Amino acid sequence: QEMVKSGKKFFKRYQKLAEDSTHPFVRASGSERVVMSAQDFVHGFYKAKGKNGSKYLEDILVIPEGNGSNNTLDHGTCGAFETGPNAELAHDRQAPWKNIWATPIMERLNAKLPGAKITLEETVYFMDLCPFNTVASEKSTVSDFCRLFSKEEWRGYEYYESLEKWYGYGPANPLGPTQGVGYVNELIARLSHSPVQDHTSTNETLDSNPSTFPLNRLLYADFSHDNTMMTVYAALGIYTNATEIPTDRRVSPKKADGYSASQAVPFGARMYVEKMHCGGDDYEMVRVLVNDRVIPPKGCKADKLGRCEVGDFLKGLDFAKKGGLWDQC
């Protein structure tokens, strides 16, 4: 139901752009759960519009995942990133914090469950049961597993997950931002109404065809994975002031340039990129929101509302325009 609600919210937020004859262009990466999320979103969007969304499901463009398929909504085409020297960077960076934070929890669990011999890794899995069981329930009722751990232990768990996303896919991974370059170049094309210029992870066959990559829509909705979203944030220059996040102690999001996994890529995470023209101004502005928070990219000069002039915003995406570090893939 969360994605149905997200579709309704999207319609209400951009209702003036969603007039009767206007339809969002929707893409989804080929994973079943991602496609289902896109379908539920479409149902919610058209329900809020007073229409039956079922007949619009076939309009969703599903981009295949897997070897040999370029897909900006699912990383996997850069061999050096997937299996190179830094492929285990996130795991390595998580280890010190896991030893500090999870050891007392493991000891408590083993004391309460004689003979269980729960390991550190299994302690994390034990805590994973809380969020996954919660979202799996029909009414998203908070799982009883959640009550087994204290608030402070959950803060440690969140930081553990934040390290994984940051060092695995974010700015701290040498090739992390490069995995988001293809999507950012597609975004540049949409904002500038010009053909996609990219030699990284874009699908040239799809992106060169107006029916599979239109440039004249008012609304677009793409459905991806949390890890790929982290690479896109990094390529956009979001959260990049905190390239080093400590692994031996927990710091607040405020000290990490606003970053934490729960704020950046929770279940059902959303990034909105808004292009707007305000009042009598003769220039257009761009604003980026991550889960309803305005997050100004570092490459442009934002006003007090977090907006950048379109030209300045596009100029700040030079990393993506140059293909990032794709030559190292």
Automatic annotation (TrEMBL):
Gene Ontology molecular functions: acid phosphatase activity
Top-level taxon of the source organism: Eukaryota
Keyword check for Magnesium: no
CDD domains assigned to the protein according to its UniProt record, in alphabetical order: HP_HAP_like
Keywords: Hydrolase
Pfam families recorded: His_Phos_2
Gene3D superfamilies assigned to the protein according to its UniProt record, in alphabetical order: Phosphoglycerate mutase-like
Entry keyword Hydrolase: yes
PANTHER family: 3-PHYTASE B, MULTIPLE INOSITOL POLYPHOSPHATE PHOSPHATASE-RELATED
Protein name per the record: 3-phytase
Taxonomic lineage: Eukaryota, Metazoa, Ecdysozoa, Arthropoda, Hexapoda
